[in-house]
Amino acid sequence: MQIKPEPKLPDPVIQKMPARIGLVVPPEMRNYVHKETRWGVNWQVDLGPGHTALVKRFFGSLFDEVVEFTELEEARGASGLKAVFEPRIEQYSFVTARETGGRYYAVTIRYRINLYTPDTALADSYTLTGYGNALAKGLSSGKPLQQATLAAMRDAAAKFLVQFPEQPAGKLLAANEPVVAEPKTASVDEITGIEAVPINEPQAQRMPPAPPSTPVPSPSVPTTPGTEKPPPGTSGEANP
């Protein structure tokens, strides 16, 4: 079973920040594919193309000007940038109707967004999680999983658009000031997070915990203080 979620988002009603920023969509994200076999069914979820379009859309909604790059090195020394963002998918997991009593499909997507200074020194690293679900209707299992995946993508995008302006870096960019790399004194287990709150669902559709899935390795990066420790061996997610 193969699906290729491609979100169509309405224009968000937000005030753009006046900053000119760089956006790096690395090959790992452009070509991200999740594969697994569940209950004898081979699943393939092509997440790269839809996410590439998604991040271009919402960063374009948040900032006055976005300059796109395919590699971080390309952004170093680019003229007039106040910051550089590099989004990545860390983990995709789902549950099927068979695991929810035939009622619905549910999806969890965990992201990391690295934030760099104009000269590409790491300034911060954010984690956020999107949640989505869709009722299991008809004979097709691909369509509800696709709908649940799109809902998770929209959920994560909405969280970032709403919460990032309240982060210290967001306040700098709102004033059209460049992001700076502060001295790092925190332990490696501490990290800044964008709050991960599940979307509101009808009681009959409450989502159970997603089954374990092997996370995509993410680069080791410096971190900033947070309040929640991530699991051993992973970058983890924490709430500010």
Mind explaining what this structure looks like?
The chain has 240 residues and is an alpha/beta fold. It has a single domain, classed as Lipoprotein like domain (Double Stranded RNA Binding Domain, 2-Layer Sandwich). The chain has helices at residues 27-30, 48-62, 72-75, 142-163, 168-174, and strands spanning 2-3, 17-24, 33-38, 41-46, 63-69, 83-95, 104-116, 122-135. The strands form 2 sheets. A 5-stranded mixed sheet has the order 5-2-6-7-8, with helices on both faces. A 3-stranded mixed sheet has the order 1-4-3. It is elongated and about 50 Å long.
Note the topology:
Blueprint: E1 2-3, E2 17-24, H1 27-30, E3 33-38, E4 41-46, H2 48-62, E5 63-69, H3 72-75, E6 83-95, E7 104-116, E8 122-135, H4 142-163, H5 168-174
Summarize the structure.
The protein has 240 residues and is of the alpha/beta class. The chain is 22% helix and 29% strand.
Count of separate DSSP helical elements: 5
What does the main sheet amount to? Answer: 5 strands, mixed
Count of folded domains: 1
Following the backbone from N to C, one meets helices and strands in this order, namely EEHEEHEHEEEHH
Structural class: alpha/beta
Helix content: 10-25%
* Amino-to-carboxy terminus distance: 38 Å
Task: Tell me which oligomeric state these chains represent.
Answer: single chain
For the record, the CATH architecture stands as: 2-Layer Sandwich
Using the CA coordinates, give the radius of gyration. Answer: 18 Å
State the CATH class: Alpha Beta
Shape: elongated
What fold name stands as the CATH topology?
Answer: Double Stranded RNA Binding Domain
Number of E-type strands:
8
Q: What name goes with the CATH superfamily?
A: Lipoprotein like domain
Spans where pLDDT lies below 50 across 5 or more residues:
185-240
Strand content: 25-35%
Order of strands, main sheet, comes to 5-2-6-7-8
Average pLDDT figure: 79
